[in-house]
Design goal:
Number of domains: 3
Radius of gyration: 23 Å
Distance between the termini: 58 Å
Helix content: over 70%
Number of strands: 0
Number of helices: 14
Shape: globular
Strand content: under 5%
C-alpha cells in the first residue's frame, strides 16, 4: 500500500502544480472534495455495510467473528465508517483490515491543498529541497515518535513521506522533462535493480524503511525513463487491472478468506506447494478476480462518472413525476 501512497501523491499533486507553476485552471476545492466524496465513499460504505452484516450474522450463529459480538462489531464498523478506527483502536480495522490505509488516504486528501502550496515556490531547487526536507522529517517522526505511540504508523503523521515522494515525482514529471524524456534500456536496468530493492527493503528494519521512499522514487522515475519497463506498465492488461485496483483493494481480502475456506472443505491442503497452488490457489484467485470485476462493473465504475449524483437525482425526479402523473389519472 505504501507504493499506492506515492501514486496518490503524484496524481493529486499534478493539477495543483500546474495551477501554481504554469497558471493552469484553478483547482476548485469544492469540486476537489466533492469528487473524493462521490468517487470513493459509495463503494467503501457499501462494502463496509455488507461486511458488518456478515459479521453480525456470523456472531448470531456463534461463528467466531473477528470483531466479537454484535455491539462490538457495530462499534468497529462505525469507527471505520468515520475513518477513525486507526485512531480510536490504534489498530487496523477488524471489519476490513486492508482499509487501514484508506483512513490515511483520507487524512492526506484533507491536507493536499495545504501541502500543494509548496508549488508556489518558483525555484525548483528550493521547492524540491523543501519537499525532501519534509520527507526526512516525516521519516524521523515515524521512527522516533512511532516507538512510543503505535498510532503514528497508522496515521498520516507516520506515512507522509510516501505522499511527499509522490509530490516530488510529480515535480520531476512536469518540470524536468520526465514525461517527454527519451527512453533507454539503461533505465530498464535501473528499474530492475530499484524495484528489487523496493521488495527487499519492504517491512525490514526501520533503517531500511527510512531508505525505501527514495528507492521507490528512483524506481518510479526509471519506469518513466525505461524503454521496456514503460511499455510493460503501459500494457492494456496492466492498466485495466490498475483501473480497478480500488475494487480489488476493497473486496479481495474477504473473498480470498471466504473462498479459501470453502475450497479447503472440498480439497484439503496437501502441504505440497505447487499442488496447493494449482488446486487451491488458482481457483481462489480466479473467483476473487471475478468478484472484484463484478464489484468494479456495477459499483465502482458508475461512481467514476463525476455526474452520477445529478443523474441519480434526475432519475428519482422522473420516477416521482411519472408516479404523480399516474396517480392523477
Amino acid at each position: 500500500m505504501l507504493l499506492f501512497f506515492i501514486i496518490s501523491g503524484f496524481i493529486l499533486a499534478l493539477p495543483f502544480a500546474l495551477q501554481h507553476q504554469e497558471g493552469a485552471e484553478r483547482v476548485s476545492l469544492r469540486a476537489y472534495f466533492l469528487r473524493r466524496l462521490t468517487r470513493l465513499e459509495p463503494p467503501y460504505l457499501l462494502t463496509l455495510l455488507g461486511l458488518v452484516v456478515l459479521e453480525i450474522a456470523a456472531a448470531s450463529h456463534h461463528i467466531a467473528g473477528r470483531a466479537g459480538g454484535p455491539t462490538e462489531i457495530l462499534r468497529h464498523g462505525a469507527a471505520s465508517a468515520l475513518y477513525l478506527h486507526n485512531v480510536i483502536f490504534q489498530a487496523p480495522s477488524t471489519i476490513n483490515p486492508p482499509a487501514w490505509s484508506l483512513e490515511i488516504e483520507v487524512q492526506f486528501y484533507v491536507i493536499v491543498p495545504l501541502l500543494a502550496a509548496v508549488f508556489r515556490i518558483r525555484s525548483a531547487l528550493i521547492r524540491r529541497s523543501v519537499v525532501i526536507a519534509g520527507t526526512v522529517i516525516s521519516i524521523a517522526t515515524g521512527h522516533f515518535v512511532g516507538k512510543a505511540h503505535p498510532w503514528v504508523s497508522l496515521s498520516i503523521v507516520g506515512q507522509l513521506q510516501f505522499f511527499l515522494v509522490g509530490f516530488l515525482l510529480a515535480d520531476f514529471y512536469l518540470f524536468s522533462g520526465l514525461r517527454t524524456a527519451v527512453r533507454s534500456a539503461s533505465w530498464d536496468c535501473v528499474a530492475l535493480v530499484a524495484w528489487l530493492l523496493v521488495f527487499v527493503l519492504w517491512q525490514r528494519s526501520s533503517m531500511a524503511m527510512a531508505v525505501l521512499p527514495f528507492v521507490a522514487l528512483i524506481a518510479f522515475v526509471a519506469v518513466f525513463r525505461g524503454r521496456l519497463t514503460n511499455r510493460l506498465f503501459s500494457n492494456p492488461w496492466i492498466t485495466t487491472v490498475g483501473g480497478m485496483c480500488y475494487s480489488i483493494y476493497l473486496v479481495h481480502f474477504e473473498m480470498i478468506a471466504a473462498v479459501g475456506r470453502g475450497m479447503q472443505r472440498v480439497l484439503p491442503v496437501t502441504g505440497v506447494l505447487w499442488q496447493d497452488f494449482l488446486l487451491l490457489g488458482l481457483p481462489v484467485l480466479a473467483v476473487t478476480l471475478l468478484a472484484c470485476l463484478a464489484f468494479f462493473r456495477f459499483i465502482e465504475r458508475p461512481c467514476m462518472d463525476p455526474n452520477w449524483p445529478k443523474r441519480l437525482a434526475g432519475s428519482f425526479s422522473r420516477a416521482l413525476s411519472v408516479r404523480g402523473a399516474a396517480t392523477n389519472t
